[in-house]
Backbone:
């Protein structure tokens, strides 16, 4: 696909999103009836565990058009932030007590027919005081032969600096350790930003720094971003994601290999506890892969 064709395609996509009305399944009651305070005690909240979709909204001024934008949990965050909305970009932390399992399938296609396949098994925990813990098991396969044996593990911790909406863009700190079989470990840090442009429009931007702790000491600097438009409240959304990556090694410091990618994104929620994400990324420069597709299936416990 040529650069001109990609630009035309994305222009058409956003024209459709702008023109599409949001379909809401629920009309909110008057504010006097819709408000509900936080639980009076931690014990009260623990005795009746609810999924994020079942959680009642916390006290806010006024009403909101979309149920997925109700404020929930101790962090007073929008309901939509309790599930991963973007594959390349993280936003905020999970509500306290939230647990979700995700399966990732990430095929990458290169020029000449070369192909890589990555699978990830992820479990996420929402912790008190705006913390989050994620654990990953990862496997890789090159080409059409070989086995998808587990060869990598990750441990990720996040911390949000304040309750949702208290600080512009809701900054969240992210630190990850990556253990690779038969290779040096990696350390990765991120600054997560995100929020709501207006009702039905959600966004996220991440700044990323990753460093290999030995070997060639590869260092990657990355900016990723995503924007989404709710089409049907709590059911499906469309949007776009992109990323720019600059990578060098100890021997090539300052001489970056640059990768620019952009693609459409889809999130579908066939059940309140389940979401499916699909994002194909396409190259914007010659160094980027021919295509990189991410598919995620997640279930909340």
Residues:
């Amino acid at each position: 696909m040529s650069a001109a064709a990609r630009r035309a395609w994305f222009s058409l996509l956003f024209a459709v999103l702008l023109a599409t009305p949001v379909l809401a399944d629920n009309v909110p009651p008057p504010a006097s009836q819709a408000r509900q305070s936080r639980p009076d005690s931690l014990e009260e909240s623990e005795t009746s565990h609810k999924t994020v979709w079942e959680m009642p909204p916390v006290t806010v001024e006024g009403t909101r058009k979309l149920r997925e934008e109700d404020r929930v949990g101790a962090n007073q965050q929008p309901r939509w932030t309790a599930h991963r909305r973007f594959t390349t970009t993280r936003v905020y932390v999970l509500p306290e007590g939230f647990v979700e399992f995700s399966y990732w399938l990430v095929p990458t296609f290169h020029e000449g027919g070369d192909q890589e396949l990555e699978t990830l098994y992820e479990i996420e925990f929402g912790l008190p005081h705006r913390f989050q813990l994620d654990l990953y098991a990862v496997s890789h396969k090159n080409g059409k032969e070989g086995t998808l044996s587990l060869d990598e593990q990750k441990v990720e911790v996040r911390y949000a600096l304040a309750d949702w909406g208290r600080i512009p863009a809701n900054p969240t700190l992210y630190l990850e350790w990556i253990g690779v079989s038969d290779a040096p470990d990696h350390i990765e840090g991120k600054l997560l930003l995100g929020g709501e442009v207006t009702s039905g429009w959600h966004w996220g931007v991440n700044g990323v720094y990753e460093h290999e702790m030995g070997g060639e000491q590869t260092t990657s600097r990355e900016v990723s971003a995503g924007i989404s438009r709710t089409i049907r409240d709590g059911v499906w959304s469309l949007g776009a994601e992109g990323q720019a990556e600059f990578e060098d090694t100890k021997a090539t410091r300052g001489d970056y290999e640059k990768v620019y990618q952009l693609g459409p994104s889809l999130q579908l929620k066939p059940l309140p506890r389940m979401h499916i994400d699909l994002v194909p990324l396409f190259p914007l420069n010659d160094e980027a892969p021919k295509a990189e597709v991410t598919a995620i299936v997640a279930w909340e416990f």
Remarks:
- Confidence is low (pLDDT under 50) at residues 26-47.
